[in-house]
Write a structure and sequence with these properties.
The complex is a heterodimer of chains A (295) and B (256).
Chain A: H1 2-39, E1 43-45, E2 49-51, H2 57-62, H3 65-97, H4 101-116, H5 119-130, H6 135-142, H7 156-181, H8 184-192, H9 197-208, H10 210-226, H11 228-235, H12 242-252, H13 256-288
Antiparallel strand pairs in A: 1-2
Chain B: H1 2-27, H2 43-49, H3 52-85, H4 91-103, H5 106-120, H6 126-149, H7 155-162, H8 167-196, H9 199-204, H10 212-222, H11 226-255
Helix pairs in contact in B: 1-11, 2-11, 3-6, 3-8, 4-6, 6-8, 8-11
Classes of the chains: A mainly alpha (295), B mainly alpha (256).
């Protein structure tokens, strides 16, 4: 009797714990992704949004030179933002990893806190720096470097700055975690063998932190393609990012199949980059026996 | 070299905080266009509290966020415990779905959910917003709780089991007290994520149900204005407070 009771309780709790999340994720993550794929092969219909004839016209349209250009331009924007982010974040993460534990915690804390706060509000706040009446223009005018305000807002540069600003922590955290694991004995050994600081950095630090670099780049690149409000607020009403294109197709033009095709392409790109990431992680593991997946 | 790297850290951190600082100062600026300092005022805040549409949107947002964060925390905590403790069919599938949900760009999740709601016949508005917010908060809770679970000794659970405790009892009396800080911080982070979300909400909300981030987004698009400065400052203060509390919870917990 007692034994029965026990297995019964165990069953229910276990089933509930596994079932709830599985059901939810299947229904609202897996099933939707399948639906997006299906939609991307359908045809636009003014009445019912989508209609039956199955075809690959949406993909042909996406690879049409006009849209291909939009796709490549927005990808370029995201890649530029990612590179800027990496260049700013790597020395930052390196500097933090050299601090003692207490200051490390403080510096990371100060960097993480804004990352959880409202990114729309922070994007809006950038206007106080880059705007016609912003701090940069005011400072340059006061110093007599320029005689009329520069147009910094509503440019591609502003969007790249915005993306870097919002996504910086995504880059710093994986970099920091792989720098932290770095075995300082390797650097000492290289120093004993006569390698200078630059050689040590280039041949030891960079290769061994490659998983962190790739992870950070992925974590900036992927969200950056979708953050349409940054392009809207800082770049003016242009289709600068992939997110803007998809948003326009869904909410304005109401061409869902074509918008879905664009998203499928985005997901394929994501899958490809994840594959690259796991390859890089494997490579680094073989190289120095250090570092593992950073997620 | 040492001094340079410290200066660089200070520079980057101050660049991160500078725009927010200017925003907060300007929300108390009497001069309307924020060109010059026109004296201290709280009149922009008074104006906000007299804006009924905005107050309603804020209340709607709070309702959605509390419900979504709570549901995501319950489902996510159970899932993390299941993933950590049990072997079951489809475990790899479940963890890869968590991984995919976490990495999917918000815009892709937004359109995927929109298509699902339309094909399941769910009216866009309150219900669709809550479902969508639970979905994007869920992986964060699972990861936070799972990380905490990995830290403690599993042998005492086996001991409890040998003594005849049911799985439910083990969960309530042993596991839950141990992971409580992670659960609370998961709830708080879900709450801020939900309260701040623009991308997903823009797709899955209906005309009848206005929420704060979207209302702020439509105000912000027009340009700099004192009311927007005030509402933005309020949002910033609310999420900063919550995040600091949750980060301190994790931190304090780690040092114990």
């Amino acid at each position: 009797m007692k034994l029965n009771n026990f297995t019964f309780n165990c069953g229910i709790f276990k089933c509930l714990a596994i079932g709830l999340a599985s059901l939810w994720l299947t229904l609202f993550v897996f099933f939707p992704s399948v639906l997006v794929m299906i939609t991307s092969f359908l045809t636009r219909d003014p009445q019912n949004t989508v209609a039956l004839p199955v075809n690959i016209a949406n993909y042909q349209k996406a690879f049409d030179p006009l849209y291909l250009q939009v796709f490549l331009d927005s990808l370029t924007m995201s890649i530029l933002a990612t590179i800027c982010c990496l260049l700013i974040a790597y020395p930052f993460a390196l500097a933090i990893s050299k601090l003692d534990k207490r200051w490390q915690a403080i510096a990371l804390f100060l960097m993480i806190v804004p990352f959880w706060t409202n990114s729309l509000v922070r994007t809006y706040a950038i206007q106080f720096i880059l705007g016609k009446q912003g701090l940069i223009n005011k400072a340059l005018l006061a110093l007599d470097v320029i005689d009329k305000p520069l147009q910094l807002m509503y440019t591609q540069g502003a969007v790249i700055i915005g993306l870097c600003y919002i996504l910086l922590p995504f880059m710093v955290l994986p970099l920091f975690s792989s720098l932290e694991k770095l075995d300082s004995k390797l650097e000492l050994a290289a120093q004993d063998l006569g390698a200078n600081a630059w050689q040590r950095f280039w041949h030891i630090t960079i290769p061994l932190t490659m998983p962190g670099i790739v992870a950070g780049c992925l974590m900036v690149l992927l969200p950056s393609m979708g953050m349409y409000y940054i392009a809207d607020l800082l770049g003016g009403a242009k289709n600068l990012l992939l997110g803007n294109v998809i948003k326009t197709q869904f909410l304005n033009t109401r061409d869902w199949p074509f918008g879905s095709a664009f998203s499928v392409l985005l997901m394929l790109l994501l899958a490809f980059m994840l594959w690259l990431y796991f390859r890089a992680a494997k490579f680094a593991n073989k190289q120095g026996g250090l570092g593992d997946a950073n997620f | 070299m040492r001094i340079f790297s410290k200066l660089y850290i200070a520079l980057i951190l101050s660049l991160i905080y500078l725009p927010m600082f200017v925003l907060v100062i300007n929300s108390f600026n009497q001069s309307k266009y924020g060109v010059k300092w026109g004296g201290f005022t709280t009149s922009w805040y008074t104006k906000l509290f007299n804006n009924d549409g905005l107050i309603q949107a804020a209340l709607n947002s709070l309702t959605v966020s509390v419900i979504a964060a709570t549901a995501a925390t319950v489902i996510g905590t159970l899932a993390a415990v299941a993933l950590h403790r049990y072997q079951f069919k489809g475990k790899a599938l479940l963890s890869s779905m968590v991984f995919v949900a976490m990495l999917t760009p918000e815009i892709v999740m937004a359109i995927a959910l929109l298509i699902v709601f339309i094909s399941l016949g769910i009216t866009l508005g309150f219900v669709s917003l809550v479902i969508a917010h639970i979905t994007f908060c869920l992986p964060f809770v699972i990861v936070a709780v799972y990380a905490r679970l990995k830290e403690f000794d599993m042998r005492m659970l086996n001991a409890a089991k040998d003594l005849g405790a049911s799985e439910l009892r083990i969960f309530i009396e042993i596991i839950l007290p141990l992971i409580l800080p992670a659960v609370i911080s998961g709830w708080l982070l879900s709450f801020t994520l939900s309260l701040d979300d623009v991308i997903v909400s823009a797709f899955v909300t209906g005309p009848g149900y206005e929420i704060l981030p979207l209302k702020v987004y439509s105000m912000v698009k027009v340009g700099v204005s004192p009311e927007v400065n005030a509402i933005s400052t309020l949002l910033l203060v609310v999420s900063l407070t919550i995040v600091i509390i949750s980060q301190l919870l994790i931190r304090k917990d780690k040092t114990q």
